[in-house]
Amino acid sequence: MMGSRRPSAPVLIVEDNAETRDVLKMVLEINGYAVAMARDGSEALEYLRAGHPACLIILDLRMPIMDGWTFLGVIQADARLADLPVIAFSANIDGDVPGAVATIRKAAVNPDVFLGLIERSCLKDAAFDA
């Protein structure tokens, strides 16, 4: 299912739980993706505003300091960041999240669907669309 090309920009994981961050990082790296990590929305904003790239953001919605909802509002209001695709990834989530390209419930992750979303979001290449 996975294409052979990978983006040069990393996937940015924004997650306060260290164990979840580490598992996501491992899965993505095994599948050929570079990864950057932040513990909350504030840390992720610092990373992005410092000029570091990201092809996609995997965003937990419930975090201390700056939660995912606030983070989404801030990046949507910033012309330099508004086009970054975001996958909302949270334990307690029902329905769509405005500003996110997809919504995934942590307990119901289908690895193939998850990796397919990441591939389509990062590569933005019609040859890779399913």
Blueprint of the fold:
Blueprint: E1 11-14, H1 18-30, E2 35-38, H2 41-49, E3 56-59, H3 68-76, E4 86-90, E5 102-105, H4 111-123
Parallel strand pairs: 1-2, 1-3, 3-4, 4-5
Helix pairs in contact: 2-3
Q: How many domains, as an integer?
A: 1
**Helix/strand order, N-terminal first:** EHEHEHEEH
CATH superfamily: Response regulator
Secondary-structure arrangement, i.e. CATH architecture: 3-Layer(aba) Sandwich
Low-pLDDT runs: 125-130
The separation of the N and C termini measures 9 Å
> Which percent range fits the helix content?
25-40%
Q: Got a strand count?
A: 5
Largest sheet strand order: 2-1-3-4-5
* Annotated CATH topology: Rossmann fold
Radius of gyration: 14 Å
* Binned strand content: 15-25%
From the helix content, strand content and strand pairing, which structural class follows? alpha/beta
Mean pLDDT: 85
Shape: globular
Biggest sheet: strands, sense, closure? 5 strands, parallel
- Per DSSP, the total helix count is 4
CATH class (first level) name? Alpha Beta
Description:
- This protein is α/β, with parallel strands linked by helices and 130 residues long.
- It has a single domain (11-124), classed as Rossmann fold (3-Layer(aba) Sandwich), CATH 3.40.50.2300.
- Helix content is 34%, strand content 16%.
- The protein contains four helices and five strands, in the order E-H-E-H-E-H-E-E-H.
- It has a five-stranded parallel beta sheet.
- Helix 2 runs parallel beside helix 3 (68-76).
